[in-house]
Amino acid sequence: MRENERMTALWKKLWELFQLKLRFAMTGAVATGVDYVVYLALVNRIFVPVVSNLISYPCGVLVNFVLHRRFVFHLQGSTYRAFGLSVLVSAGGLGLSTLLIYGLSQIDFFAVHQPVTKLASAFVVFFYNFYLKRFVFEGKFV
Questions:
Q1: What pairs with residue 73 in β-bridges?
Q2: Under the phi-then-psi rule, with left for phi > 0, alpha for psi from -120 to 50, and beta for the rest, what region is 121?
Q3: Which of 4, 48, 97, 109 sits between 20 and 30 A of 81, alpha carbons compared?
């Protein structure tokens, strides 16, 4: 019976983590949508890809913080502290995203298909953001 209780607790924990990632993904999709639309409005019309990303990414970050605080994570501590740490994590995400945009844009296919470039970058940065922002808001990675 004891082994059965441990398995039940494990499945419950995995289900909670899945639900958390699902909420994170849904709110992240909204913020990524903001980032993506701003990026596509700017790229190759007004700015080069890297500059467009440096403008669009922070727009998504602000939306992301508000949605994460409201719908995803249980804030442990000060909102100002969480926002400051979230900005630091997002600065790392901005750096990672910009490096990916720059690197991928050196490849002919990605240089021509900027929507695909931005999506590839967003996919990688999603995992970086999930674990570090969970730590910022809740003080735990898993």
A1: none
A2: alpha
A3: 97
Q: C-alpha distances in angstroms, 48 versus 20, 42, 67, 104?
A: 36, 8, 29, 13
Please provide the size of the chain in residues. Answer: 142
> Are the CB atoms for 83 and 62 separated by under 8 Å?
no
Residue with tokens 């922070």: 58
The reported pTM is 0.73
User: H helices within the chain, ranges in order?
Assistant: 2-42, 49-67, 79-105, 108-112, 114-138
Q: Residue 1: what pLDDT?
A: 57
| Tokens coding 47 | 């700015």
3 occurs within a structural domain: no
75 in Cβ contact with 137 (< 8 Å): yes
Domain that holds residue 112: 24-138
pLDDT tens for residues 3-34? 888 888 889 989 988 888 899 889 989 998 99
The reply to whether 118 falls in a domain is yes
* Rounded Cα distance, 124 and 101, in Å: 11
